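Entry type: protein chain
Record version: 2
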Amino acid sequence: MPAHTFDADDNLVFYFENESAFAAYTHQLEQKNIPTIPNKNDYWNRYGRTYADPDGHQVILSYKQIYPLDDYLLKSKDTTTQTLIQKGITTWGELVRFVQHLPYGRNTNRSDCSLVLSEGKGTCSSKHALLMHIAQAHHFLQVQLQIGIYKMKASNTKGVGKVLRQYQLDHLPEAHCYLKINEQRYDYTRPESDISLIEKDLLLERNISVEDVAEFKVILHKGYLMHWIEAQNLPYAFEEIWAIREACIRALEE
């Protein structure tokens, strides 16, 4: 039998069926501090993540559709795009991966999505507003910014269960921002974010502008909560429900 030495062209590739499975598994590897390695073939750097197994062989995890528009170059002359290019972020796919991995946290000004870059953090609103701003600057007409109000509960939003149980609430209507690309929903808030977890619990969905993530989102959300409190005949005033909601947000940040 001829001898064979494994080299950079020998790759074992595992394809994931959907975005959520890919994101969940790669997030587990990140949590265990298992690093990715650059692949000789740039195709796999764009459409997968490469790891070295204990024997030194290369294993690739791939889900090509996790980053729609992945290869589109960022070349607009607007200030935000130029800031990204200076950071070495030159494609839509690189931008999405960069935004996903930024810490979750509120920015000092809800109206300025560029603070995601300067402050190095963001929420579902500011992160997706930044992505939408770049999409508009590059005329990506298939990209839409969405606000959805969904039943936030322990099963679909990690970290809020303890807070809700404390106030004997099964769920709380929460406003969440995400993108639609070619009419398919994508949540880039965190690497492990899985939009399918909340899709079945959506109560309302609306297409919004980048400017709407500041005041309009809050107005829409508060109005929905007021009607919900009355319809559910809850023993809480609106101010109390909003305080519980803020406690849930702090739990998410932690």
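Comment: DSSP finds ten helices and seven strands in the chain.
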